Recover the amino acids of this structure.
DNA sequence: GAATCCCGCCAGCGT
DNA sequence: ACGCTGGCGGGATTC
């Protein structure tokens, strides 16, 4: 049986769309450097192939997983968010922590939380802390919405235009009026906007809300039979149940899969004494050093494995076939300072309120998606 | 061209 | 002052 000689590097960077184009050369260089290094090491009887299973650099090389927008959508994010919490009856959510865990901008977590607040499954505790009160809470809240008498009063503590209030209104529409709505129709019904721009904004927000509600199965996408217009349909408890079941099923599948593949997750090597790049100029250098370390680490691993194998063979006098061992290495990317849009002439007033993620989890993939398009 | 919605600016508010 | 929160709309992406 041949051993898997690949290094899997999930190299992750924050995406900045206006950077796509200026980044292309950097990526190209980085790729070359990477290959050169790998070649250098391959002399040492390690045949190292590169597997960019998530993103790769050219059409020839790629086992290619294109960046797609869906992976970063509120719907997916919300799914992940809820998945993290679904096993808890009660849990304090630390915003920093969940932000890091999901590798996403803080701002997006607010969106999800605000919408989930309308289902009363999440409540703000204090700065940075929210409280998750169990998935079953959603069932109870729906009951309350269905009951027109017990009018959920969310408006007292929230601004009228908040996502929470809008979301609550949207849910009420489904539960108390009819089960299918187009977003435009709902936007008009929820408040009496005359201004077209304001209406457009409200529709945008309803998209956000719809995506979160959809993520947990409460509503689903559909079309009006009459006009064929896209719309959303209430699914309710059945949908929630299905969401839960699917999640559990997937979890189980993943577990068995993981055992089968024998994936070892190796902690990120700490890159010390290396200046973290403050610009993309030093990006190559940094990544290069990371790669060196990873390769070194893999060499060590392999040495150990071989020694172990020999030891066992000597002991047992029986040949041992080691299972295919795939290791996933991760480079935690450095924080890259990102110049703000050149277009805007107004100087930035307040740096502190940007929602820069704590770790830049995403995505060279997106950059590379662009890169490939432009080959 | 319409539908969709990611992204991040920046105001507002609590501490 | 500071930084958390979240309203908002530009414009990219997908249909």
């Amino acid at each position: 049986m041949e051993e898997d000689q690949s290094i899997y590097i999930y190299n992750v960077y924050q995406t900045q769309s206006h950077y796509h184009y200026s980044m292309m050369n950097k990526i190209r260089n980085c790729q070359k450097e990477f290959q050169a290094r790998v070649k250098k090491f391959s002399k040492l009887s390690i045949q190292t192939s590169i597997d960019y299973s998530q993103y790769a650099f050219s059409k020839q090389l790629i086992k290619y997983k294109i960046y797609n927008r869906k992976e970063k959508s509120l719907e997916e994010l919300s799914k992940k968010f809820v998945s993290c919490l679904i096993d808890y009856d009660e849990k304090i959510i630390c915003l920093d922590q969940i932000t890091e865990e999901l590798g996403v901008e803080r701002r997006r977590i607010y969106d999800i939380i605000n919408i989930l607040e309308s289902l009363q499954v999440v409540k703000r505790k204090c700065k940075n802390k929210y409280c998750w009160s169990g998935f079953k809470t959603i069932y109870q809240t729906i009951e309350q919405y269905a009951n027109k008498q017990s009018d959920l009063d969310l408006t007292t503590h929230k601004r009228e235009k908040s996502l929470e209030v809008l979301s609550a209104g949207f849910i009420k529409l489904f539960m108390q009026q009819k089960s299918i709505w187009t977003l435009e129709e709902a936007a008009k019904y929820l408040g009496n906007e005359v201004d077209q721009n304001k209406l457009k904004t409200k529709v945008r927000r309803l998209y956000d809300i719809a995506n979160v509600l959809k993520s947990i199965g409460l509503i689903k996408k559909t079309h009006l039979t009459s006009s064929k217009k896209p719309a959303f349909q209430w699914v309710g408890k059945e949908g929630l149940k299905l969401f839960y079941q699917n999640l559990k099923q997937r979890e189980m599948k993943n577990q068995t899969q993981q055992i089968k593949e024998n994936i070892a997750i190796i902690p990120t090597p700490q890159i010390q004494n290396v200046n973290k790049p403050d610009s993309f100029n030093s990006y190559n250098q940094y990544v290069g050093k990371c790669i060196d370390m990873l390769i070194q680490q893999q060499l060590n691993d392999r040495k150990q494995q071989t020694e172990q194998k020999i030891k066992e063979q000597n002991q047992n006098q029986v040949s041992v076939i080691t299972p295919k061992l795939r290791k996933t290495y991760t480079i935690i990317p450095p924080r890259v300072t990102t110049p703000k849009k050149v277009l805007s002439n107004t100087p930035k007033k307040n740096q502190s309120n940007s929602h820069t993620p704590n770790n830049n989890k995403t995505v060279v993939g997106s950059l590379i998606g662009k890169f490939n398009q432009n080959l």
Remarks:
- Residues 169 and 190 of chain A are 7 Å apart (CA to CA).
